[in-house]
Every structure is written in structure tokens, then in C-alpha cells.
Automatic annotation (TrEMBL):
It holds the Pfam family PPR_1. It comes from the Eukaryota. PANTHER family: ATPASE EXPRESSION PROTEIN 3 (PTHR47932), MIOREX COMPLEX COMPONENT 1 (PTHR47932:SF44). Keywords: Repeat. This is Tetratricopeptide repeat (TPR)-like superfamily protein. Gene3D superfamilies: Tetratricopeptide repeat domain. InterPro entries: PPR_rpt (IPR002885), TPR-like_helical_dom_sf (IPR011990). PPR repeats lie at residues 292-326, 327-361, 362-397, 398-432, 433-467, 468-502, 503-537, 538-572, 573-607, 608-642, 643-677, 678-708.
Length: 824
């Protein structure tokens, strides 16, 4: 039955009205149709479906509920109520029904996932008790389908490659390209979507793609996509993203596994939020997901990584009490924990106890301890441990064992010891491949022993183990570090004779050597001929040559390298940009530094607040204050908020120019922004205010600053600065604030004030300061007080001179016999 005319007109009016609010956003920053329009249409369909059965058959309320639930919960579109769309939201009850027994679990987990703090604040020990107290011993293991292990075939699929290519060009996105990506998305099977997520080098891009795809019409994430996204995020510090993905899974009734909560735990742990990671266990059980061995292993790993070994051991005990039997992975985590806190004996005891607990150690258990011994250069104990591994655990040292030892010793630059194990492995009939040889050769090169490295390369060739590009590159880099660039060039040419083609890393190592030896121009020429040599410079190559020019003072050439670097699609880091603009500012060319920074910013480089501050400081050094203030305004326009260092730089420049009122206003603006003043901020303000004698204005400003960031020595600095600028009487008025704490620093300040009075010929003022120090149980410097006493005597003030020295006698710091001239 078709819609009637009135219904069609209402739908058309609704679409026209809501499309006026449409806008495009790509991954939150670019193109995407606003969901407000969809909310309006679904609200209309929902209202009609309650009265007309035709609408209920045309539009599934469950689907609508899921879509609106998705938008309102995750992407902040619930605010449409405040924008006049109060009737646009469909109640969650229109979606899949929730059983009464599930409501508590759902709400409790929401409370944790929606909070910024990650739930209630409790001690880790209490969390352990709660977790195991509610453990169900008679639980049945649930099986969740959908393995998401990586598949190389999926990564090489043409559709996956095309989607990744479109994502890489997101900076130049258009609605047409988004339409192509949307079309490809609907053609992708769930495993291919997982492959796209895993293929992203930047996990933040993967998360944005996950959100963008989730908002598309006629597309719904398969559960394995959620699992894959959580696994990707578990390798990062993006704990808030992992928490939101888990939130979506719970809200959409997607079955959560213990591994999924484990991914969130690891992400919280990487971000340094161990307490929140452990709270995930309690919330997992409240959501109806039972503990298992894998999540317990994750909890122990998190505790060990945060150096909370005692809590990890207590967790292990509780596991065993409730019937969760640990495995070798569990014990290996604890062994690693013992090694991290340098408790090697306890690690060895744990290995010895494992067989009695029904779990035999594996080679990883021993390798963990061996790695610690290699780091400590306790090679004899490494050999003893290998014998113990054979005798006690019947684990024969094999090729993997020797390769592991060789790489661990090479990592910690124990070249001779690594070579010794290499020889031993070959004597026992094991074949050490070029990877093992390359590790030892690189170790010798790092220590500057190039003759030994060359001998090993020749030995490899004689044994039929052909060196690869990694081996030769290590030697080339070694020659360059030793300053023998000519030998590095010859070796690079010999690589072709041995059938090994140098790659970008090989040439970059040589260019780095040339730049460090002051031959950046030659390095630049070699880059220009890269196409002839069949290699392509990368971002590191450009950075090496750019810094070479910078160190040589060829700043124009360095700027050209940055511009070429950006044209090639390589963006310098903020640190690299700052080093260059800092060098330019030191040459007094702050305008050129500003121009370069603006070019980098306009081209999409990650310019940060430090770069702006460097340019501002460059202008301040030239006393071009107007230009510095202009750059400060540009920061706000570029959405780069100044920090305390930025404000302090400008405040100091204003003070030098005598523009104290402007410096005061800028200080208040800094405080209003929530920034804390630094000690440098205090010193700068004190210096300039005291220099102009505006002590009262300074004290008023400090009353606003000190509650934000207390600086105990601020009054000491004021007094000392007033003394140096000749305002001794004003300094004396502040003496009471200094003597409140009566510390050693206060005594030094009082001595400065006393010496200032003596220089002015006011010995009585010095006497008063000394008396106030005695009253606060501070002992003045005896030699300084002797000078004051003599001055008082010369001025005929004998009573004050006697009283001052008697104070020392009363406290046992001076005998009467020692001062006959005074007391005679």
C-alpha cells in the first residue's frame, strides 16, 4: 500500500529542513553527513509506525534504535535535544529488549565506561578481593566465535589495498572520494575490514576509520571488527579509544570476551593508569563475563609492568585459592618482574619451584634471567644457567638458545662475549646465520673496533654465509662513526661487487657521516644523484642533510632542504623544526624563522607551541616587541595555546621595555588561562618591578599569583632585588614576611640587607636587622656583626654595639675574653 500524499509531503519537508544542518566530516575532521537529518526522518517513521502498520513493516525499529543509540552514545549527537530536536530521538526501548536480569550489569558497566576516571577509586588489593570473592567455581567456559588472527592474504587483497590508499590521501579528501570509500566499505567482508585496521601505521587513523565506517548507512560492524579494533588499540596508549569501543560493544549487546577486557587493561597500563586497568576486572564480572586464565595473566602482566610485584604475587595466590591453575606464561611474567627489581635469586627460586607446582619452566623462563645477566655483564653465570637448564629441566641448548644469547649480548655491547657464544655454537654443530653474525658485527662497529668487524665479514664470506645489506650497512655506519668516511665510501661501492645492492638506510648512514665531517654539500650532491643509484631518500635522509647544513651555519640551504622535504611528502617533526628556527633566530633573522614556521604550518606539519615560543623569543632578543606580540596573537588564531614559557618570554620583554602595566595584564591573562607561573616568571617580574621601584604594585600582583603556584623564596628575591637597586628601606618593610619561616635562606637574605645598610653608612639599620634575627632564633653571621659593632662604636653608639655582641655571648657563640675592646 503506497504512502498517502500528506505522508509524502511531511517526509519531504522533514528532509529539506534537516538537510540544512548537514555538513561533512571525514574521520571527525573531514566529510561526513550529519546524523541529525537521519534522526529527524527516523523520528517521523517511529511516530507513524505506532499508528500505521505499514510504517512498522517499512522501517525496523530495532535498526533505528541501534543507529540512534550508536550516534547518541559515542559521537555526542545526543546534544540535538538542546538544539531543538527534542522529538528526534527514539527511545532505547525501541531497540532489542533487555532482560531484567541484564539491566544491572548494563548500567554498572556504563557507569565505568562513560566516566573519565574509569569508575570508583579503590585500592588494588580491594579489587583483587572483590574479583575472586565473586568468582564462580562451577562456571562453564563460553565459546565466542570469530577468530581474528592476522592473515597475510587479506592484507594483500586489492580491495584492502585500495581502501588503505584512499585513507592515506585523507588530507586531500573530497565528497567524491568519500563516496568511493563508502562504496568499497560495503563490498568489504568483516575480515577485510579487520585487515584495513591492522594495516594502518598510525593506530589513531585506524580508530577514526572505525568510527567513520560505523556511521555509514547500510553498514554494520561485525563482532570480529570490534575484537580487531581492541587488539590494535591494546598496542597503544589510546586507552580512552579502547574504552569507547568496549562501550559500544556493551551497548549493542555484542558478546564480550575476557580477551576484550584484557585489551582495555593493557591499553590503560600503557597509558600509566594501572588502577583503572585493575578496575576493569571488577567491571568485567559485573557485566557477566567470568574470569579465566588469560585475563588473570593479563592482570599479573599489568602489575609486573608497573613494578608492583608484591601485588602480582598476592594475585597469583588468590588465583590458586579459587581454582585457577597458573601456567608457564603466568610464572614467566613473575620471573620478569623479579628481574626488573633485581631480585635474581627469587627468580631462580621460582624456576626451581615450578615443577613442584605442576608447571615446568620452558626456555623463555631461562632466557628471561639470561637477559638480565647479560645486561649486568655476568657472563659466567649465564653459562652456569645454561648448564642448570640442561641438568634440571632437561632443556637442551639449541640454535634458538644461542641466537638469543648472541643477540642479547650484542644488544648490551658485549662484543667479545657474543663472539665467544657464536664460536661455541658453531663448535657444537649449530649454524649461525647472517642475522647472528650481523648482530655481532654491529656490536663491534658500535664500539669502534672496525678491524674486528671487517675480519668477521671476511669470515662470513669464506664460510659461505653471504653478508646482506644489513651487515654491510652496519659496517658503513661504523666507519662513519669512527670518522673514516672514505672507507665507508669504498665499502659502499664494494657492495655491488658482492652482489648486494645498498638501500636507503645504507646511503643515509654514509650521508650522516659526511655531514658530521662537515661535508654537507657533498651529501646534498649525492642525494641529487639518488635516482641514478636506484635508491630513494626518506624522511631520515632529508633530516640528516638538513641538520648537517644547520650545524655548518648554512641556514638557507637547510631551509631549502625542509621545503623540498615537505614537497616530497615528508614532514619534519616539531623538534627538527625548532632546532632550525632556533639557529635562524640566533643569527638575528627572526622574520625568516617566522616565515619558515608559517610555511611548515600551512603545509600540514605538526608545529607546536614550542616552535611559536622560539620565534617569539627571537623577536624579543631583537627588541622587536610588536612582532613578538603579533606572533602571540597568531598562536590563538592557529589554535595553539601559549604555555607558561611563552607568557614568561613576553612578560620579560615587556619588563625590559618598561611596559610594566602591559606585563601585569599579560600575567593576569596567564593566570586566567589556568597556567601556573614558573620560578622564572617570578624572577622576571620581581626584577623589573623592583628596578622601577613599584613594590606595591608587585605585591598586589603576587597576591594573585602565589595562591596558584606557591614560591617560598619570592619575598627573599624581592628583598635582595630591592637591595641591589638601592631601595633598602622598602626592603626592610618586607623583612617580617621573610622571618616568618626563619630558614637558612632567610638568614642569607637578612645578611644581604645588613650589608646594604652598611654600604649606605646606616649601621643602626644593620643592628635592627640583626636583632630581629635573634628574636626569630636566627644567628647572624659573626664576622658581619663585628663589622656592624665597630661601625656603631665609631658613630658613638656604644650601647647598641655592646648589646649586639652580648647576644652572641648569651647563645654561647662568643666568649667575653675574646672581645676586650668591646666589653672593656
Amino acid at each position: 500500500m503506497p504512502f498517502n500524499t500528506n505522508a509524502r509531503n511531511k517526509i519531504r519537508e522533514t528532509l529539506v529542513r534537516t538537510l540544512q544542518f548537514s555538513k561533512f566530516t571525514w574521520f571527525g575532521d573531514y566529510f561526513h553527513e550529519s546524523p541529525l537529518s537521519c534522526n529527524g526522518v527516523f523520528a517521523y517513521f517511529s511516530s507513524q509506525s505506532s499508528r500505521n502498520p505499514i510504517f512498522s513493516s517499512a522501517v525496523n525499529p530495532k535498526v533505528c534504535g541501534q543507529i540512534l543509540e550508536r550516534d547518541d552514545v559515542e559521537y555526542g549527537y545526543g546534544r540535538s535535544r538542546e538544539e531543538g530536536f527534542k522529538d528526534c530521538r527514539i527511545s532505547i526501548s525501541d531497540g532489542p529488549s533487555v532482560k531484567s536480569g541484564e539491566k544491572y550489569k548494563f548500567d554498572v558497566l556504563d557507569e565505568f565506561l562513560e566516566s573519565e576516571n574509569g569508575g570508583e577509586s579503590v585500592e588494588d588489593s580491594e579489587i583483587e578481593l572483590r574479583v575472586f570473592d565473586s568468582f564462580n567455581r562451577n562456571r562453564k567456559e563460553s565459546e565466542v566465535s570469530g577468530s581474528i588472527e592476522g592473515d597475510e592474504d587479506e592484507l594483500r587483497h586489492p580491495l584492502v589495498k585500495e581502501v588503505c590508499r584512499l585513507i592515506d590521501f585523507r588530507a586531500a579528501w573530497t565528497p567524491k572520494l568519500e563516496g568511493e570509500l563508502r562504496h568499497l566499505l560495503r563490498s568489504l567482508k568483516p575480515r577485510k575490514v579487520c585487515a584495513v585496521l591492522r594495516a594502518q601505521s598510525d593506530e589513531r587513523v585506524a580508530l577514526k576509520f572505525f568510527y567513520w565506517a560505523d556511521r555509514q548507512w547500510r553498514y554494520k560492524h561485525d563482532p570480529i571488527v570490534y575484537y580487531a579494533m581492541l587488539q590494535v588499540l591494546s598496542k597503544t596508549k589510546l586507552c580512552q579509544g579502547a574504552k569507547r569501543v568496549l562501550h559500544l560493544m556493551v551497548r549493542r549487546k555484542i558478546e564480550c570476551r575476557p580477551e576484550d577486557f584484557g585489551c582495555v587493561m593493557v591499553s590503560f597500563s600503557r597509558a600509566g593508569h594501572v588502577a583503572k586497568a585493575m578496575q576493569t576486572l571488577t567491571l568485567m564480572q559485573k557485566a557477566g563475563v567470568e574470569l579465566d586464565l588469560s585475563i588473570c595473566n593479563t592482570a599479573i602482566y599489568v602489575l609486573v609492568k608497573d613494578h608492583k610485584l608484591e601485588k602480582a604475587l598476592r594475585f597469583l595466590e588468590r588465583m590458586q585459592v579459587v581454582g585457577i591453575k597458573p601456567e608457564v606464561i603466568t610464572y614467566n611474567c613473575l620471573i620478569k618482574g623479579y628481574c626488573d627489581v633485581h631480585q635474581l635469586e627469587n627468580a631462580m627460586e621460582l624456576i626451581a619451584e615450578m615443577p613442584f607446582k605442576g608447571c615446568f619452566p620452558d626456555k623463555v623462563s631461562y632466557y628471561t634471567v639470561m637477559g638480565f645477566l647479560c645486561k649486568e655483564k655476568r657472563i659466567d653465570e649465564v653459562r652456569e644457567l645454561m648448564e642448570k637448564m640442561l641438568k634440571d629441566s632437561k632443556l637442551l641448548p639449541d640454535q634458538v638458545s644461542y641466537n638469543t644469547l648472541i643477540h642479547m649480548l650484542s644488544k648490551y655491547l658485549h662484543a667479545d662475549e657474543a663472539l665467544g657464544f657464536l664460536r661455541e655454537a658453531e663448535e657444537r654443530g649449530f649454524f649461525i646465520d647472517k642475522v647472528g653474525y650481523s648482530a655481532v658485527i654491529n656490536c663491534f662497529c658500535q664500539k669502534g673496533r672496525m678491524d674486528r668487524a671487517k675480519e668477521l665479514v671476511n669470515e662470513m664470506i669464506s664460510k659461505g654465509c653471504t653478508p646482506d645489506v644489513v651487515t654491510y650497512t652496519a659496517v658503513v655506519n661504523g666507519f662513519c662513526q669512527a670518522g673514516e668516511v672514505d672507507h665507508a665510501k669504498k665499502l659502499l661501492q664494494q657492495m655491488y661487487k658482492h652482489g648486494c645492492k645498498p638501500n636507503c638506510v645504507s646511503y643515509t648512514a654514509l650521508l650522516n657521516g659526511l655531514c658530521k665531517s662537515g661535508n654537507s654539500t657533498e651529501a646534498r650532491e649525492m642525494m641529487n644523484t639518488s635516482e641514478e643509484e636506484w635508491w630513494t631518500p626518506n624522511a631520515v635522509t632529508y633530516s640528516v642533510v638538513m641538520h648537517g647544513f644547520r650545524r655548518e651555519g648554512k641556514l638557507s640551504e637547510a631551509c631549502d632542504m625542509v621545503r623540498e622535504m615537505i614537497r616530497k611528502g615528508f614532514f619534519p617533526t616539531p623538534v627538527e623544526i625548532n632546532l632550525l628556527i632556533q639557529s635562524i633566530c640566533r643569527e638575528g633573522r627572526a622574520s625568516e624563522a617566522k616565515k619558515l614556521m608559517e610555511e611548515c604550518l600551512n603545509k600540514g606539519c605538526a608545529v607546536n607551541v614550542v616552535n611559536f615560543t622560539t620565534v617569539i623569543h627571537g623577536f624579543c632578543q631583537k627588541d622587536d616587541l610588536e612582532a613578538a606580540l603579533s606572533v602571540l596573537d597568531d598562536m590563538y588564531l592557529s589554535n595553539k595555546h601559549p604555555d607558561a614559557v611563552t607568557y614568561t618570554t613576553v612578560i620579560d620583554a615587556l619588563g625590559r621595555k618598561g611596559r610594566i602595566d602591559e606585563a601585569t595584564e599579560l600575567t593576569k591573562k596567564m593566570l586566567h588561562s589556568g597556567l601556573l607561573p614558573t620560578p622564572v616568571t617570578y624572577r622576571s617580574l620581581i626584577h623589573h618591578f623592583c628596578h622601577q621601584g613599584r613594590v606595591d604594585d608587585l605585591l598586589k600582583l603576587l597576591e594573585k599569583m602565589l595562591p596558584r603556584q606557591d614560591c617560598r623564596s619570592v619575598n627573599n628575591q624581592i628583598i635582595e632585588k630591592l637591595c641591589s637597586s638601592g631601595h633598602v628601606d622598602q626592603a626592610y618593610k618586607l623583612l617580617g614576611k621573610v622571618l616568618r619561616t626563619a630558614s637558612r635562606i632567610d638568614a642569607n637574605t637578612c645578611h644581604v640587607l645588613m650589608e646594604s645598610y652598611l654600604k649606605e653608612g646606616n649601621s643602626l639599620g644593620s643592628y635592627k636587622v640583626a636583632c630581629r634575627m635573634f628574636n626569630r632564633n636566627l644567628i647572624p653571621d659573626l664576622k658581619l656583626c663585628e663589622k656592624v659593632s665597630k661601625k656603631l662604636m665609631l658613630e658613638g653608639k656604644l650601647d647598641e654595639a655592646d648589646k649586639l655582641m652580648l647576644r652572641f655571648v648569651e647563645r654561647g657563640h662568643l666568649s667575653i675574653k675574646c672581645q676586650p675592646a668591646v666589653f672593656g
